[in-house]
What does this fold into?
Amino acid sequence: MSSCASELFVCPHCDAVHRAVVLGRHEVAACVSCGRVVARHHSLSVDQLLALTVAAALVFLIANSYPLMIIEVGGMHTEATVWGAALLMLHGWAAWPAAVLALSMFILPLLQIALLLWVLAFARFGRRAPGFRGLLVALHRSRPWSMSEVFLLGALVAIVKLSSWVQVTPGIGIWALASLTILLTVLSLVEPRFWWTLLQSHT
Amino acid sequence: MTTPVRAITVGLVACRTCGLVMQRMPVPGPPASCPRCTTLLRERLPRSAENTFAWLIAGVILYIPANLLPVMYVSGVGGGEESTILGGVLSFWRDGSWDIAVLIFTASVAVPATKFLALALLLWTVHRGSRLARRQRTALYRLVEIIGYWSMLDVVVVALTAALLKFKALGTAEPRLGIVFFCGVVVATMIAALSFDPRLIWDTGAGDGH
It folds into this structure.
């Protein structure tokens, strides 16, 4: 098995072979036969990506330590956090959906941020992070199951739903969650090839 | 524009994790692993159509109790009430929040139904070896991939409502069994979509040399 064809690119959706092109600013390359976006230009350096990831880690912390929404009724008061909503259901049969929620809304986004921090922090100093391969594979595999944006929309729907009965106030958590969603989306636009060829010249 | 060559016909294989393109091994044998990321190299996902079909059927079966059983129980001053997904949509509609009703209907009813139909169509056309509208069918597959997880919306809404509404005097909310099945529908259809190899759509053409 020889990896001679490094300048070639194969579309994962239709198996068409392309010659890799250098993209200019804002340019996107699509597969000629099936139309899938196969490459996207991004001008972010390792430093900038690291900065975005640190920002994502901070807003993740805020989104999970402050309530998403608060209800106050006659002196009584309840609030919900991402983690708390999942934990509350973690008994009996409701543990199944709770586990899926905890995984997709909390554990996987946290894992992704941690992996990116680790890999980028080492790349910043021109070094390949320990466990680089396994971590990038984990990042790739976990991506379809990470869904903080769904949680954001769900929280907004819950606010509207509950506001017909009681007074609901959006908490700081919801703004942090919105920022987290944007940051994770930006980071996920970086294609796999960028990560795998990171530091290739150094090794 | 001329049709590009396909990797399978020129003896190339791309790693599905990192995208590295390599020459396929001439001798058939156990799959080798990618030198860059160690993923097993396969030209196609093994038994893709069978796996997709199995998960699709599982999703359709779970969809029935998910819609028939209540997903949430809300007790208020005037007694308790259990509601199904469609019941929830209808009550939003009646209360005048038609926008939320449309949103929940889309995420919880229309999206899973679209996924079932789209995956069934893809499996059926692949099985028949159809060459029609391959580009559009690949686009349909991408749609299934993108809309996939938005069905989790209702699970989130139920979880948050249950977490917030726990005032003994005024009202409490509890999740009900339907939400377990509903969550199962989302997971099963997501696995179904991930098991489907869209390259199967393109494997049936003339001029491919096989």
Summary: Chain A touches chain B through 68 residues (CB under 8 Å). Residues 86 and 98 of chain A are 5 Å apart (CA to CA).
